[in-house]
Amino acid sequence: xxxxxxxxxxxxxxxxxxxxxxxxxxxxxxxxxxxxxxxxxxxxxxxxxxxxxxxxxxxxxxxxxxxxxxxxxxxxxxxxxxxxxxxxxxxxxxxxxxxxxxxxxxxxxxxxxxxxxxxxxxxxxxxxxxxxxxxxxxxxxxxxxxxxxxxxxxxxxxxxxxxxxxxxxxxxxxxxxxxxxxxxxxxxxxxxxxxxxxxxxxxxxxxxxxxxxxxxxxxxxxxxxxxxxxxxxxxxxxxxxxxxxxxxxxxxxxxxxxxxxxxxxxxxxxxxxxxxxxxxxxxxxxxxxxxxxxxxxxxxxxxxxxxxxxxxxxxxxxxxxxxxxxxxxxxxxxxxxxxxxxxxxxxxxxxxxxxxxxxxxxxxxxxxxxxxxxxxxxxxxxxxxxxxxxxxxx
Length: 394
What we know:
Order of helices and strands: HEHEEHEEEHEHEEEHHHHHHEHEHHEH
Mean pLDDT: 92
Number of strands: 13
CATH architecture of the largest domain: 3-Layer(aba) Sandwich
Oligomer: single chain
Number of helices: 15
Number of domains: 2
Low-confidence stretches: none
Radius of gyration: 20 Å
Largest sheet: 7 strands, mixed
C-alpha cells in the first residue's frame, strides 16, 4: 500500500469496510479519519447547540468532551460503577436535565455497559443512546449486548483500539432522520493531506523496527527522533490536550481502510487472543490475590485487563525499569491522558469521587495482538515479585 499512492484516497478497501460494517451492525456506515471526527459529525447531524448537554462518564478519554465542545454542546460527567468501570442508569439519571440530548456509554476496556437499561431510559426521555465501541468490537461469540441497543455506534481504529488502521473511525447510524443529514455532511468531508496519510501508513513499519530495540533505549530514542522530525502523527495533538478540536471532518483514506479491513477480517482471531490473555490474567489475579474488576470475565475480549492496586503508579515506574511498559494513558487521570488540561474539559474535581479513586488504583495489563502469552507470564511474575517486595496488595 505504501508504494501505491494512487490508492491512498479512494479504493476498494474503503468501500468493502463500509459495506461490511453496515451489514454487521444493521445501520448506515460512514468512515471518517478518526472516532472523534465521527462524533463531531454525529453532533452536527443532531444540530447540537449551545447549552445542550451530552452525558459521558467520568474516567474517559479527552476526545469525548472535546468533540462535544467542538459541536457547541456541553459535556456532563456521570459517576461510574467500580465493578464495571462504566456509568450506570442511576448515575445517568442523577445528571439528566431538560437540556440533555444524548448519553454516550463506552464499554470501558471492553467491559459491557448496561446498554439495555440505558436504552430504556433514553427512550423514556426521548434522547439518543450512543455506544462508544472504541475498546471492543464483538465477534461471532459476542458479547451480544454490545452494539445491540445504540441509536448510533462509534468505532475508532486508532493504534490502541479493538482493531487498528493506525487512525480512522466509523459511525453507524440507525435513525432515518439522522442518516439523511449524515449523508449530506459526509459529502463535504475533506481528504487528509497526502503527507499525513503517508506518515500514518509508515507508523507500523517504524514501530516494528523500533520495538525490539526499546529495552536498549535505542528504540525509544529512534521514536523520539521520528517525532521531532514530524514523521509520526501524534495520537493527540497539543491543541486537543488543551481542549480544542476543529469542527472540520475528514474521510478515512483508503490506505488506512486497507489496514483496518485486514484486522476486521481477522477479528475472531484477534478477539480470541484477547480472550486467552484475559482468562490468563483473571486466573493469575485470583491465584495471587490481586483485586480486580469483578465483571472482567474470562470470555470477554478485553482491550486491557484492569487490576486495583495501591501505589499503581509506583508499580508502573518500577516495571518500566525492567522494560515493561504499562502507562497506556488511562492511569492516574479521570479525563485521560493525564497530560490534558482538566479545566478545559469541563470536569470539576470532586464531582465523581468513585471515578477519581478508581483511576488512581488502576493497573491495566495489555491484551493487544503483539502481547504474547510468554510475555504475559513474565509480566505477572514480575508484578507478583514487585507487589511482595513493596508490600502492596490492594
